[in-house]
Amino acid sequence: MSPTSRTTAATDTSSRRPRPHPSTTVLLVRHGQTATTGKVLPGRAKGLHLADTGRGQAERVAERIGELTVAAVYSSPLERARETAAPIAAAAGTKVKVDRGLIECDFGEWTGAQLGALMKRPEWRTVQQAPSTFRFPGGESFPEMQYRITGALDRLRREHDGATIVCVSHADPIKAAIAQALGTPLDLFQRIVINTCSVSAITWLGGGPPIVLAVNSTGASLKELTPA
Asked: Which of helix, strand or coil describes residue 26?
């Protein structure tokens, strides 16, 4: 074989190598601040809208996400989430799609209760230290919530293979999704902090496991969210 033939053969072999699969990234955004944030457990109660501070937060997170190419913006059906998603979708040049899998945990009989009063209940220690064993009276259990949110994210990221999407949800579902991606037991998920209008990012490379790129990001540029 001549040197030219060997070079051609090597080139042909190289061209047959599979190209790296593009990453699929989900940006998890908690809704903006409301008048009851940190005071009441609003749950799925309707009619709770963003406060002025929350609307400002939503505009700022939209500017941050606007630096990226976003294929779709999904939101929990609750008003505070949809109002947060609206400026993000506008910045991305798309419309908000509502997905019930992103909804807040169903707190059942605890819905609308003052957090200060709930913290005095004996069950609160279980909520904080062994959430995998707890079901809200008349509502959802933490494992059910985690199964729901992670199932929704798996479905949505498969629909947008190789792209970046935004999912606007609530603190506990986002914490549960991050814990699952990290391989952290659900009983430790309360150690994760998710502030209003923070961005957390999970990416998937081909058929590999999820990779957590950011948790509770509130100020840095999102352009750096790429797996090393």
From this structure: strand
Phi, psi dihedrals of residue 212, rounded to the nearest 5°: -90, 120
Within 10 Å of residue 63's Cβ, how many Cβ atoms?
12
Give the integer Cα–Cα distance in Å for 161 and 156: 9
104 is catalytic: yes
| Residues in Cβ contact with 147 at an 8 Å cutoff, skipping those fewer than 6 apart | none
For range 68-83, the mean pLDDT: 97
Q: Catalytic: 31?
A: yes
Ranges assigned E (strand) in the chain: 23-30, 40-41, 72-75, 96-98, 113-114, 164-169, 199-205, 210-217
Out of 31, 83, 140, 170, which one is annotated catalytic? Answer: 31
Residue 197 vs residue 14, higher pLDDT: 197
* pLDDT, position 17: 61
In this structure, the dihedral spanned by the alpha carbons of residues 118, 119, 121 and 127, taken in order and rounded to 10 degrees, is: 90
Given the residues 83, 104, 140, 170, the one annotated as active site: 104
The residues, any chain, with a CB within 8 Å of residue 6's CB and separated by 6 or more, are: none
pTM of the model: 0.90
**Is residue 157 pLDDT above 50, yes or no?**
yes
The verdict on domain 21-218 having CATH code 3.40.50.1240 is: yes
Cα 226 to the center of its chain, rounded Å: 16
Question: Kind and range of the H or E element at 150?
Answer: helix 142-159
Report, as an integer, the average pLDDT of 5-23: 57
**Domain edges within the chain:** 21-218
